[in-house]
Amino acid sequence: MRGPHIRGLAVAVAVTTAATGLAGTAFAGPATGTDHAVAATGTTAASVVTAARAAAFAHAAATGVVPGDGLRAKDVMIDPEGARHVRFIRTHQGMPVLGGDLVVHLSRQLAYTGVTRAADHSVEPATTRPELTAAQAETKAAAVAKGDAGTARLVVDARDGRAALAYQVPVSDSDTTEATGTRTVVIDAVTGKIRSNTPDSDEFLSPELLDTLRERGETLNPATGTAAQPTALTAAGASRAVHYPVTATGTGASLFVGKVPLTTTRTARTSYLLKDPTRWGTETRDAKGQELESFARGKAFTSTNDKWGNGTVSHRDSAAVDAQYGITKTLDFYKKTFGRKGIANDGKAARGMVHFGNKVANAFWDSTCDCMLYGDGDGDMFKKPLVVLDVTGHELTHGVVDATAELEPTRVDADGNQYGEAGSLNESLADIFGSNVEFSANNAKNPPNYLIGEKLGLAQKFLRRLDHPSLDKLEGTIDYWSPQTYDAEVHAGSGVSSHAYYLLAEGSGRKTIGGFAYDSPTYDGSTVTGIGRAKATAIFYRALTRYMVSTTDFHDARLATLKAAADLYGANSTAYQTVDKAWAAVNVTVANTPAARR
Ligand SMILES: [Zn+2]
């Protein structure tokens, strides 16, 4: 999702499984002698949240938390190395504060050790008395987003360098958004100025990229199919009494990843559901060509023999096989690598719908539906459904980012293109972890690599790549940071941190990995020796979940990954030093850190 809405939140405690490496050296936060924290008798989520909230008010000069603020815990992280981190969403005088998020860091003894905050400035607006009425704000939002306005609510918008009183208005059926038509409009409650107007779903392909492909007349008809015919029915089990539903193992003939096993639900002797009970009930449904944004209205996929699809688009189930496979492989990557239980780490199902809309050439992470939506392609430019594995890994990672740092673009233009470093970082993390999903799945029909969208059938053979981002000529992805990156389109800008990640993992220069040849350049001609994908990925994940907030830019990301590396491997480790080198190699350094922009 891209909308700056704030959801109802459950506190989830994530006790990370031990990552590789040494016990953490705590990062250098402001050391305080005062220990107001409750005694560390046990570390329940509630006691950690209570201590973190008290610390946020007690250390107001550092945290920026003022009287009148309310702090609601979004996430609690308990590190095996000892540190505790609580991510808060803020209200001021009862109003949600957009860009008011912060993470409070505590020691094992629950003493305050530091803060990561989205807004460096005060979140108190000059006035709390609106000039506009809610009805006027709704009318204005409906007009600008060309749709139906919902109920306006007063918020504090602290995202753009200063705090302002504003109305936040949800708009449905917007004509300004391709496919999923819900948007969030924020209007200054005093001046009536539109502060932001953002779509609530993340499109895999940006409006600008679709225009580029149209101009080039590219037709994407990627090779699909397994040609595998369903094999003979297996014996339907002995006649012992079975209490349905039970877990079953079916077979799917996918479009892009060959024949794959699928864990399904057997609901009766000859009835199966494409729903995985071993992964919290993760399920893929059929949107039946409608622009459904409600998963409940999707049609369940059922089978009489637990065999799904035929490897071609002639069977409605085939795209569902790719989707369900991709979603479950993404969940598996996050669980086995980081102990993360589901997209929001709350042990809840992930969900997808295929055959979304009529001739939709895109795939989305939709926050309204809280699900993945896959179009079938427009039949003109995109001939096949957009259900490839790294697209799913990319899009579901946007769900993980939503549940953690919730990185936001700094602006969205009238066509829906997004700009800014925090948004670029969001796209980059989606590519980094999306690529890791491929490595984790390790399917011979979809060989893992550092390329994104290599199975979409594009003329340049990939959409983006992490080793040398500027080889992409479609979105103009960049290799290195410059002051202009501040306002880069988010997919183009993503190259900076994607490139830093690749250098950290694999190093600079020529390298062949799994039959793919890479040649990663550096800004300053330096040589970087990689620390391996596992360590690099652990560092980026810890940085995302502990040390990034909604406004984190590339220089902040450098600091976040340094802290993460210090936690995991120590501040004198090779890993820590390589993080520093990798960022310098993409021109992100202490020396060129811009003055505060917030
Ligand atoms: Zn994306």
List the helices and strands and how they pair.
Layout: E1 13-15, H1 45-58, H2 60-63, E2 69-78, E3 84-92, E4 95-98, E5 102-106, E6 112-117, H3 134-145, E7 148-149, E8 153-157, E9 164-172, E10 183-188, E11 194-199, E12 201-203, H4 207-216, E13 246-253, E14 259-268, E15 271-273, E16 275-276, E17 282-286, E18 299-300, E19 302-303, E20 307-308, H5 316-338, E21 351-354, E22 363-366, E23 371-374, H6 389-403, E24 411-412, E25 418-419, H7 421-441, E26 451-452, E27 464-465, H8 490-493, H9 495-506, E28 509-513, E29 516-520, H10 533-547, H11 554-569, H12 574-584
Parallel strand pairs: 1-2, 4-8, 13-20, 17-21, 21-23
Antiparallel strand pairs: 2-3, 3-4, 3-5, 5-6, 7-9, 8-9, 9-10, 10-11, 12-22, 13-14, 14-15, 15-19, 16-17, 17-18, 22-23, 24-25, 26-27, 28-29
Helix pairs in contact: 5-6, 5-7, 6-7, 7-9, 9-10, 9-12, 10-11, 11-12
The structure holds zinc ion.
